[in-house]
Amino acid sequence: MRTSLLAALVAGLMTAAPMSSAAAGPAFPYDGDGTIGGPLLASTGVVVQRLPGAPQLPGGLDMGSWLVADADTGEVLAAKAPHERFLPASTLKTLTAITLIPRLSPKQVQKASYDDVAVDGSKVGLVTGYPYSVDTLFTALMVVSGNDAAGALAEAAGGIPRTVRLMNAEAAHLQALDTVARTPSGLDAPGESSSAYDLALIAREGLSMPAFRHYVGTVRATVPAPRGRHFEIYTHNRLLTSYRGDIGIKNGYTVAAGGTYVGAATRGGHTIIVTLMHANPNFWSQARELLDWGFAAEGKVVPVGTLVAPVDPNARPVVEKVQAKPVVAADRREPAPGGVASWEIALLAMSTSTAVIVTLRRLRRRPRLSLPPL
């Protein structure tokens, strides 16, 4: 069955009409088969449509999924398995931020609870009972991926259950339908998921918020402590201080999720978004190469999809007041519904002809590394 389906797919691509120029525009309807962003984004492999003079994709992109998009137009320039679901780790904090920034005053004060302080994973070092401004908590959330700050922000918004409901409503509002939040921090939990496509949607929404751009672009900040003291924090995002034009966003890691990343950079007034999921924890060179490719490929590829607009750009989602079930942490990856975990189909559509290279290879299990979760 799978072999016949693949043969039909190849035959269809091989008989398609060649593309003459970039001016011809996308060769597909974005909403043709119900896949958010366009039918080509249903692929579980690599999809790209290169025109003459377009750069080759970087080699060695062995992560579970990735995506390169134009943040200005919303065009997806290339992707691999963009809708496959993975654990998001701390990249889910981008959803926490865009959900709560419009709802909380930066001057609002929240005392850290024992549960906030005792949370697993990366922390900024909140002190139980000490009051922090929401502005400080957002800074700690995005600069050093503070899971304690995520909990305190959730409490400021009415508690973790309500915050998680708000996050899921926000994801639905953005049409980020691969995303299911179970925690405000992104720590592994049963059923929690996102995708490379959804992380790009969330990041693009965040970039429209000045406060979000401020927090993700902060390199160094101070956090107050008892007895009039304070301590300094420094960004976890290595590209923010080393890649020309980088404007930050968020990286993450757990053993089950692997490395996760969503980032953006601006050059010449133009912004590219890159997302990576289920990657080697040391993914920085690959993220850099994909950003480079995105800038070089602009205008030299036919988009393979689009980052869709929210369901109603002028309305925020409304959440009913119901009691949520408690979240239980899990250190394992939840399989994607209907996904094929053991095979990868890579489709590379070449620009001036209809030649298609289809490769099948067995995915290799990555070694489990004992690094602290972010």
Short description:
The chain is of the alpha+beta class and 374 residues long. Helices cover 25% and strands 21% of the residues. The longest helix is centred in the middle third of the chain and has 15 residues, at 160-174.
Give a verbal description of the structure.
The chain has helices at residues 2-14, 93-100, 114-117, 134-143, 147-156, 160-174, 196-207, 210-216, 284-297; strands at residues 46-48, 65-70, 75-80, 109-111, 131-133, 220-225, 229-234, 246-254, 258-267, 270-279, 305-306, 343-349, 356-362. The protein has a single domain (1-374), classed as DD-peptidase/beta-lactamase superfamily (Beta-lactamase), CATH 3.40.710.10. Residues 1-32 and 320-372 have low confidence and may be disordered. The chain is of the alpha+beta class and 374 residues long. A hairpin with a 6-residue loop joins strand 12 (343-349) and strand 13 (356-362). Strands 1, 2, 3, 8, 9, 10 and 11 form a seven-stranded antiparallel β-sheet that branches. A two-stranded antiparallel sheet has the order 4-5. It has a two-stranded antiparallel sheet with strand order 6-7.
